[in-house]
Write a structure and sequence with these properties.
By secondary structure, this protein is of the alpha/beta class. The protein has one domain: Rossmann fold (3-Layer(aba) Sandwich). Helices cover 33% and strands 16% of the residues. The protein is built from 9 helices and 9 strands. α5 links the parallel β7 and β8. The longest helix is centred in the first third of the chain and has 22 residues. This is Uronate dehydrogenase. GO terms for molecular function: uronate dehydrogenase activity. Its EC number is 1.1.1.203. Belongs to the NAD(P)-dependent epimerase/dehydratase family.
Length: 277
């Protein structure tokens, strides 16, 4: 490809994608609200920009074929804090991509778009929205906008409902939800290189034998995860107390995000759970 744009390039996940995406294009334009990284790749250009600045994004996307949108606040927060980067920012990216003539947006959606769904439900990629937080609601908004932009304007979108993406699974819940860093890269590469996608939703999950979701309806993406959280089961399964099946944090796909008060950090709750508190 001639040009790929990556938003959120300084984030925990976006930073993992810079080199793989640079290998797929003549030019990678990375952007973030933070300053440029010190290790720019030979074919990488960095533009510091705010996700609410439509004019800036329209300019930096000129000539881009693909936009990989990973920029956002990656946690629950008060609605007013999420409104700019997560809601308006998603509109900015899709509108700028359309105006620049891009072919596809690959979007970092989240499991929290369906976080109130039961873990035992066995969800496919066509599962309805069931957000657990304002953060999850922002992902539903962006997914619905992506579907609308495809049907009204022909701008393709692949929305990746990313689950627990860490170097290693951090707790017993991650035996179901883990997405390894390697599989994240494989998933994004598949979303970028598949010839035709239309509007597609895919679960961002590794090849965990306990996975509560399925990508079998979007096999055409060619995503073949290689890692399995079960390799850590012996370390993660022992627990000092029996899980409570009536606890929404245990039975809901969003885990602790399903029980935190709206506007309060779900990431902090996961860290407490991983620490055994």
């Amino acid at each position: 490809m001639k040009k790929i744009v990556l938003t959120g390039a300084r984030g925990a996940l976006g930073s993992l994608l810079r080199a793989p995406l640079a290998a797929l294009a003549e030019e990678l334009v990375s952007t973030d609200i933070r300053e440029a990284p010190a290790d720019l790749l030979p074919n990488e250009r960095f533009v510091q920009a705010d996700l609410t600045d439509l004019a800036a994004f329209e300019a930096l996307m000129q000539g881009a074929e693909m936009v990989v949108h990973f920029g956002a606040i990656p946690d629950e927060a008060p609605f007013e804090e999420l409104l700019g980067p997560n809601f308006i920012g998603a509109y900015t990216v899709w509108e700028a991509a359309h105006r620049a003539g891009a072919r596809r947006v690959v979007y970092a959606s989240s499991v929290h778009a369906a976080g109130m769904s039961e873990t035992m439900a066995g969800l496919d990629t066509d599962a309805p929205h069931d957000p657990d937080t304002f953060y999850g609601l922002s992902k539903c908004f962006a997914e619905d906008m992506g579907r609308m932009m495809w049907k009204k304007r022909g701008l393709e979108a692949v929305c990746l409902r990313i689950m627990s993406c860490t170097p290693e699974p951090q707790n017993a819940r991650a035996l179901h939800t883990w997405l390894s860093h390697g599989d994240l890269v494989r998933l994004v590469e598949a979303a970028v290189t598949t010839p035709v996608t239309g509007f597609t939703v895919a679960w961002g999950v590794s090849a965990n034998i306990r996975a509560p979701v399925s990508n079998h309806k979007v096999a055409f993406l060619g995503y073949r995860p290689r890692d399995n959280a079960e390799d850590w089961a012996d370390r993660l399964l022992p627990t000092p107390k029996t899980p409570d099946p009536s606890d929404p944090a245990q039975r809901s796909l969003g885990g602790p995000f399903a029980v935190v008060p709206l506007g309060e950090s779900g990431v902090a709750a996961i860290k407490r759970m991983s620490a055994g508190d």
